[in-house]
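Example record for the data management plan.
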Amino acid sequence: MKSKSKDLNKNVSAKKASLGRLIKKNENIKRTVKKAASKLTMVNEVLKQEKVPVQVMNQALTQNENVEQKVAKAAIDLNLVNVKLADEMAERIVIESELANTKADLAEARDDLSEAQVKTEEAQQIALQDALTGLPNRLSFEQGLDHGLIQAKRHGWGLAVLFLDIDKFKSINDIYGHDLGDQVLQMVAKRLKSSVRDEDLVSRWGGDEFVCLLFQVEQEADATRLAEKITNRIAEACEFNGTTLSIKASIGIAIYPADGETADILFKNADAAMYKAKGTKKRVVLFRKSRERKTG
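Corresponding structural encoding:
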């Protein structure tokens, strides 16, 4: 369609040039007629005079005949030019109409493309978002961690993966129903999100499990303190349709690069530390510390 518009623009330009030439020719013919009229006037003035010599009279008549022939030819030429001008104008109108329609089609195509792009972006967002909590989903988190590991290796940064599990969540569903269970998950998501920095990543991993990715971690104690802050925040009493609950959660932590240099190992170690955390009062365990206690 862009090619068609380009061709039509070329045609319009060509028609403008052609019309310009015809108009110029028209003006030249008009000037010729004007000169002829002037000569006719001069001849008539000569013929009006009395006692005009025969030779002068013959010259005047010959000139008059020549001028009349030129005027007749100019009239024919002018008529042909005017006809061609009319044809050129008609063609130009058709071409400009087609160009206008093509531009309208291009504008509509751009609108359709923009709408398609919006729908594609929305589809991509849906594909990377957890429907219940609005948090990035598992796929989105994995992509974020892969990117984070690349940056961490390049700049020598530390990363922390926090694996969180809600304690006895099945009992909440069994006792209060799945609707209230969903509300609990939404509450945990909000409190998790509000506890970390804007640049950190929080995701619902699946079921009642959540994960956090902390960027540029300088000391493992910073990750531990944040995890304890999160468990305390989640444990704050919350009312759900008249039912007040205090939710407990356990968190396992794996630090890059000390506890693993790949996404799979970090997840595995954070998950293992989380199960260790379920048996502690603080409900927070760093993977390496759990190994040290086990080997000690």
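Summary line stored alongside the record: The mean pLDDT is 80.
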